[in-house]
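ok so for the tutorial part 2 we go from a plain amino acid sequence to predicted structure tokens. step 1 is just haveing the sequence, like this:
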Amino acid sequence: MTAREAVAGARRLVVKIGSTSLTSVDGGLDVGRLDALVDAVAARAAGTQVVLVSSGAIAAGLRPLGLPRRPRDLATQQAAAGVGQLHLTRAYAEAFARHGRTVGQVLLTSHDVVRRQPYRNAQRTFERLLGLGVVPVVNENDTVATDEIRFGDNDRLAALVAHVISADALVLLSDVAGVYDADPRDPGATLVREVTGGADLAGVRVGKTSSLGTGGMASKLAAADLASGAGVPVLVAAAADAPAALDGAEVGTVFAPHGPRLSARRFWLRHMAGTRGRLHLDAGAVKAVVGRRRSLLAAGIVGSDGDFEAGDVVDLVDPRGDVVARGVVAFDAEELPEISGRSSEDLAPEHRREVVHADDLVPVGATLVGTGPAATTPAPTDPAGTAPSAADPTCEPAAADPAATSPPS
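step 2 — the prediction. this is what the tokens look like for a chain of 409 residues:
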């Protein structure tokens, strides 16, 4: 099955729509464009569970507040979001009601997913809404979000939601027909039809965000990379082409999955969990943890920093200071200096355990677009077998990966 066929046949789908596709240049909500989108989603929703991630709250609040353009200060942005979210949700409720569908509003901040229990709560809420036949309409909670707790843009939020709900595919809709190798306004620009690897994006140049939104093609590339790297096919297309895009037509740019579908726990560790410190590894430990997916022992640690407790998430860094993995640490920060660099037989019995177990660890690597972390890739075969080398005291064998549907615990 091709990636485009996977999008067309998805039984559980996340659709994201950008601000510029819902609002006019003067900031008002364009109900006609919103209705057209809802018609396309509702047509697809027959037999498919759809989650709609919608931008537009701040933009929809500009006209009622008499604001000529998107405000730059946080307080006014939040005020506009508070007003605009009401208008946006009411418009969606009325539009979906024409198709006999009920909508439910889900407002999130990154605090709702960086901690394990709220992440599981979000999973359960989505599952119940979808089970009741509701179309969840998701947006970042702009009325309370600050720079420190923002997702960054709704493209990233949509990619994260796609994994939270175990979606079969993600569709990112905007005012651009897909990914081009140059500015789409350039007569010589060519649409990239399919992305299967980094080579397909070589030379691609992307523009800046519009005045109405915080996204742009760069954020869509990053979101598509995040989702496809975790096993979810992605389609980037124009909102005007929504009916065709949701019907599997040859529109937009499709991203084929370029990594295995991660378990919910590993995805949470990889992309959502907040970190409280860093463990500095020697070269041997980096090779064992990243290359052979082993648990990290104290012998491979040369230092640590941060104020963390056992059970917190920490970054694992190589001798150059680059983050190579992320995991749940089994010791408090104050315990590590005493045991770092020491082999297990030299430690007290209560300290002879993994500092980070393989089940609680996920590697970090390069991405399609060249920045940020990538999804976990299968570990290469260890020529010495499944057991760690006797000369390598920094690691333990990795346990089996949890099931793809298991939530963080």
